[in-house]
Amino acid sequence: MRTRILTIPFPSSGYRYGDVVLNDGAAVGHRVSNGKEYPVFNVLALLAPSAWHTFEAELHAPVPGDIEALEALCKGEGVKVDDWTTSVRFICKQCSEGTPHAEHDEDGTGHWNERHRVGFASIDETAVHRVLEAWESDSRRVEWLELVLSGVKML
Predict the structure, then answer these.
(1) Residue 52 DSSP class
(2) DSSP character at residue 103
(3) Which of 43, 58, 60, 47 is nearest to 9 (CA)?
(4) CATH pick for 2-149 out of 3.10.129.10, 3.30.70.260, 1.10.10.10, 3.40.718.10
(5) Rounded CA gap, 112 and 90, in Å?
(6) Which long-range contacts (CB under 8 A, 24 or more apart) does 96-103 make?
(7) Which of 12, 93, 109, 150 is the most interior residue, by most CB within 10 Å?
(8) Where are the domains of the chain?
(9) Could you give the CA distance from residue 74 to residue 71 in angstroms, rounded to a whole number?
(10) Rounded Cα–Cα distance for residues 83 and 65 (Å)
(11) Average pLDDT, integer, range 97-112
């Protein structure tokens, strides 16, 4: 089964937003997002690499509204963004090959972490820089930004 990746994978996976991959169609687990359950598949091969670059950044964002402002700027520039600090949770191997159990849920304290590891996907490298320059202020800043996976140049 062919699948297009529509999230921003961690760079260590070797995959990028927009890659088309092959999987065997056999779900190896499930995840729930916004109340909806989705199957999880293992990738067998990369069929068509995407032209999207993957960037990784560490940001200082004192309040949740800072990330919302970043997301709005990204949308305006056609840049995809994923706040890995809030959207990713680490689970055990058994749960990664099934459905995660409740012990992996957050502690529910609602504590805001000011440091955020964020992934960006963009075909235009300068768009990411424009977004971050517009986002920075006296209270919020980019600690570091790195291009971690370069997209395939399309003709």
Answers:
(1) -
(2) G
(3) 43
(4) 3.30.70.260
(5) 18
(6) 96/29, 97/28, 97/29, 98/28, 98/29, 98/30, 99/29, 99/30, 99/31, 100/31
(7) 150
(8) 2-149
(9) 5
(10) 13
(11) 62
107 — pLDDT class (breaks 50, 70, 90)? very low
Single-letter residue type at 8:
I
> Edge-to-edge strand order for the sheet containing 115-122?
80-83, 115-122, 53-60, 141-149
Residue 101: predicted pLDDT? 65
Task: Report the Cα–Cα distance between both ends of the chain, in Å, rounded.
Answer: 26
Position 103 pLDDT exceeds 80: no
User: Using the 8-state DSSP alphabet, how is residue 136 labeled?
Assistant: -
CB count in 10 Å sphere of residue 47: 13
Spatial CA neighbour of 124 closest among 86, 153, 85, 94: 153
Type of residue found at 146: E
What is the residue type of 32? Answer: V
d(CA 11, CA 21) in angstroms, rounded, equals: 16
**What contacts 37, CB < 8 A, 6 or more positions away?**
30, 31
C-alpha distances in angstroms, 50 versus 14, 34, 117, 120? 12, 27, 23, 14
For 120, residues 6+ apart whose C-beta sits below 8 A from its C-beta are 8, 54, 55, 56, 57, 74, 79, 80, 81, 82, 128, 131
